[in-house]
Amino acid sequence: MSMCISPTSKIPCLLLLTFIFLTACSAKTTAPSPLLIADSQRLSASVEQAYWWHSDIHVHWPMGENPDWAVDAMLANEVFAPIVMNQSSAPLLWRFHRRAMRDASGQNFSFIFYASSDRAKEILRKIDADETLKQLSSVGIVERVNSGSFAAAPLPQIEGTSAPGWPPSLQRAWPYFIMGASATWLDLIRQEAQTAELDRRDVRTTLEGYRRVSKNIDAIWYEYAQRAFFHHLSAMFAYPEFQMKTELVF
Fold this sequence. Notes:
Elements lengths: L1 E4 L34 H7 L3 E10 L10 H15 L8 E8 L6 E10 H13 L1 H8 L3 E8 L18 H27 L8 H34 L14
Parallel strand pairs: 1-3
Antiparallel strand pairs: 2-4, 2-5, 3-4
Helix pairs in contact: 2-6, 5-6
């Protein structure tokens, strides 16, 4: 999951999906989340016919207010989790992108995925027909949805939506990394929402519950991000130095 805010290839398997769990230690675990189960054989067989697609959801962001990031969490769990958790209809690769900047795009939550044309059309139909998305639109929380393939010509390469300035090997590997990061964030939402006792009387009360969910995840990030994410990711690369080319703005 990539995120932007101002004041505000092919490989044999998807082990990178669980990048934050790969450490020098092993531990006994419970059954994995369905979000982290991938069909690598299906990926290998289907990748030649796949393209990159997107669904961009523009969220209402009033002037003078902070972005309501809980809308993203609600969209992720209510609209997109049923798609990626269904192995029969899930895309081969997918990720979320979150951003909020005072420009023409404003606050925008994107679902970016890699699938065949037939699978993509099925996924986009599900998004268009989603009841939660319709309700959020009806009360003005979601302003518009733009979906389709990238650019005038579809992008067939796995590296098609990676940064063009990266080395080719990184461009091809990164989609697996960011899918794992997105799945981790989504699974945190899923687990927190299960215990949040969401009030589903209407879309606004449901969103209020997701604000509590988002606060809980913010607290997890604040307390554990250094060890659970940054430390173990650095350990994967054997703790080398890296270059900070631009200032990070959160």
